[in-house]
Specification:
Elements: H1 2-42, H2 47-70, H3 78-83, H4 87-121, H5 142-160
Helix pairs in contact: 1-2, 1-5, 2-5, 4-5
């Protein structure tokens, strides 16, 4: 019962991530094309759009890596698995690599939360974006969300079993 709910919740997170990645890639395509058209034909462009596009690249790449953790394609200690022929040792090594991944992503999640106040202190760096009524410091909230997603996927892989996906 709990295993099914965890799997369903994990699948919902994955669907959310897919929509975000698709939307950000489409937005990058459209906005970068618009920027090229503005610069070629009108000899102008929106300077703050480049910064926004960098954020979209970061968001799509990190959500893509979060989806990789759903499919259990994150880093593993495969050399030990190849050296060992016993099923019990391989199972232990799989669990060990997932636990190491959970700890690493958990630490990164905590530090991404600590990074948010630092980003708000650097407001003067992002003054050029004010012309679009877009404050880039709010984009930084995606970092903890992404790392929390990675943490959830990696943690839920302990319950789902690595061969189920």
């Amino acid at each position: 019962m709990l295993k099914q709910r965890i799997k369903k919740f994990d699948n919902l997170i994955l669907i959310f991530e897919k929509y975000i990645v698709i939307a950000s890639v489409l937005a990058m395509l459209f906005l970068s094309f618009a920027q090229v058209v503005l610069r070629i034909f009108f000899n102008s462009g929106i300077s703050s759009l480049d910064t926004f596009l960098r954020y979209l690249v970061m968001i799509s790449a990190l959500f893509g890596s979060s989806m990789a953790s759903y499919y259990v394609q994150h880093f593993r200690i495969e050399i030990f698995q190849r050296l060992s022929k016993k099923e019990q040792i391989n199972k232990f090594l799989n669990i060990f690599s997932v636990v190491v991944s959970i700890v690493a992503v958990g630490i990164i999640f905590i530090y991404s939360l600590k990074f948010i106040p630092v980003e708000f202190d650097l407001k003067e760096v992002f003054e050029s974006i004010k012309s679009l009524n877009f404050t880039s410091e709010y984009m930084i909230f995606f970092l903890p969300l992404i790392f929390f997603d990675m943490f959830c996927h990696t943690f839920f892989s302990l319950f789902n079993g690595e061969g189920d996906k």
